[in-house]
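@channel sequence for tomorrow's demo:
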Amino acid sequence: MRIDKASRAVFLDPVDPAFYNNPYPAYHAIRAETPVFKWEQYGFWCFARHEDVNALLRDRRFGRQILHVATREELGWPETPAHLKPFYDFESHSLLELEPPVHTRLRGLVNRSFLSRQVERLRPRIAALAGDLIDSFAGRGEAELLADFATPIPVIVICDLLGVPSTMSTQLLGWSHDMVAMYQARRDRMIEDRAAAATLAFSEFMRGYIAERRKSPAEDLLSELIRAEEQGAKLSEDELVTTAILLLNAGHEATVHALGNAIKCLLEHGMREDIGAGHVEEALRYDAPLHMFTRYALQDLDYAGIRLRKGEQVGLLLGAANRDPARFGEPDRFLPGRDPNPRVSFGAGIHFCVGAPLARLEMDVALPLLFNRLPRLAISQEPGYRNAYHFHGLEALKVTF
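C-alpha cells (generated this afternoon):
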C-alpha cells in the first residue's frame, strides 16, 4: 500500500491476499493519513470515517443509479457490451439499484414481509433447520461449517419464504454465486459470461415458477407479489422476476458470511457460552460481510473538500467505518454488549438492508444452538478469506468438536 497524503491518493490492490485477509490495518493507516481518498485501483473517491460513511448513506444527493437523471452520452459512458446486456437489463429492475419513486414502490411491496414481527414466525423453522444440519455432521467429530452450516440456512430459509422448493437450493445457489461475482474486484470476461448465462437461466426458471404460482397460489412472498401485481400495484413481470431473484441473491450471500465470520470470531475469542444478541451485533460490526457500498453523485456538489461531478461514483467503506476509533472505543476489540453500537453493516437511509431482521434472526437462532450442541467446538485449520473484495467472507471454516 502507498498513501500520497498531498494528492489524497491511495494505491492498494484489493486482490492482494494480505489486504483481503485482514483489511483493518490498511483502513486504520488510510483513515489516519487521508480518510477521504482516491483509490487508484478503482478510480473513484472513497470514505473511511464512520461520520462520512453514515452521512453519505443517507445523503439524497447520492444514489444507486444515475441513468434516471443523465444519459450515457452526457456521462461519457460507452454502450453496454453485448455480452453483458442480459445482466444489466436484469439489474435495471433491481430494488438495490433503483431510486425513488420506483424504489419506493417496489420496496413497499416487499417490506412488510421482512418486518421483525413478520420474520419472527420463522424462528421455529430456523431452529429446526439448524438442528437438522448439526445432526448431519455431529457424529463425525469434524465439519466444514461454511458448507455444512452457514450456507444452507440462509438459502433454504429464503426459498421457504419465497415459496421456491428447497430441493432447488443447490442450483439457485450456483446461479446466485455466478451473478454476485460481478460485484467483486476480481472480475474478468469468464466471470462476466458466467454471470450473464446465470442471469438468463435463473430468470427463465423464475418465470416458469411464477407461472405455476399464478395457477396455484400459496401463503408465501412470491404469491403475495403476484397478487399485488394482479391487483394493479404496478409490478411488471420483469420487476417481479428481478425482485424474487434479488431477494434470494441478497438474502443468502451476506448472511452466509455474517454467520461464518461470527463463528470464527467467537471461537478465536474463546466465547462458547451464553451467546446472545450482543454477540451477534458486535460480530456484525467487528467483521462485516460487506466492506464497500458504492453510490453515484446525482448532481455536481462539494463534499469534504472535494469537488464531485454529476455521475461520479464514490465508495463508502463500511468495514473501515465499523472500526473507526472516533466512533467506537477500542475498535479492534470484540466487546459483546457494546453500547452504543452504531455499526453500518446493513447500510443506512433508503437502501438500508430490507433483509436485516431476517439475517439477525438467523444468527440469533443458529449461533447459540451451534455452540450449545457442540461445546468443544474448535478451529482445526487457519481459515482464509475469499479473494472477492468488497465482499468479506471465508473460503472455508474447518472445525473439530
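heads up for whoever presents: Residues 237-268 form the longest helix (32 residues).
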